[in-house]
């Protein structure tokens, strides 16, 4: 199965994603009173204490706001099924969505030559490891949306 065909039922971040006619989108929420936007979705607004939040599709594209390369294996509770011997560095960044909210995300590239602040990014699912039984693990990530 191509992970982009549908959201796998056992995807650990499935509650953060929706699928529309154009593909995957991030799910957030917006305060019905003051308009504050959140990712991940929340039940109440920290800006005005309103408890009536509206679901909001944040979309699938944004601009790279900041980034770094995770060059060492993350500590617990992160568990990708990797060991120190087979760990591969990966990019991590903040992507600013059109509504202004910044989403922390894994990036599809860890190559500094291929990343720059402000570049357009697109949402996708990526494999980041596997369970002990060999079942692949996927998460959302952002990758460059076009040529530099």
TrEMBL record:
Matches recorded under Pfam families: OB_ChsH2_C, zf-ChsH2
Record-given protein name: Zn-ribbon domain-containing OB-fold protein
Stretches assigned to the ChsH2 C-terminal OB-fold domain: 58-124
Protein's organism: Stutzerimonas tarimensis
Domain of life of the native organism: Bacteria
Ranges of residues in domain ChsH2 rubredoxin-like zinc ribbon: 26-53
């Amino acid at each position: 199965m191509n992970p982009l065909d549908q959201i796998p039922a056992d995807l650990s971040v499935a509650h953060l994603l929706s699928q529309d006619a154009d593909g995957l989108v991030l799910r957030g929420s917006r305060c019905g009173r003051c308009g504050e936007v959140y990712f991940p979705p929340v039940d109440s607004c920290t800006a005005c204490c309103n408890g009536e939040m509206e679901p909001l599709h944040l979309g699938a594209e944004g601009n790279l706001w900041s980034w770094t390369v995770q060059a060492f294996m993350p500590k617990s509770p992160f568990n990708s099924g990797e060991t120190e011997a087979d760990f591969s560095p990966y990019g991590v960044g903040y992507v600013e969505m059109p509504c202004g909210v910044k989403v922390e995300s894994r990036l599809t590239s860890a190559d500094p030559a291929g990343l720059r602040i402000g570049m357009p990014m697109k949402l996708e699912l990526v494999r980041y490891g596997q369970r002990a039984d060999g079942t692949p693990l996927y998460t959302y990530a952002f990758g460059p949306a076009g040529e530099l």
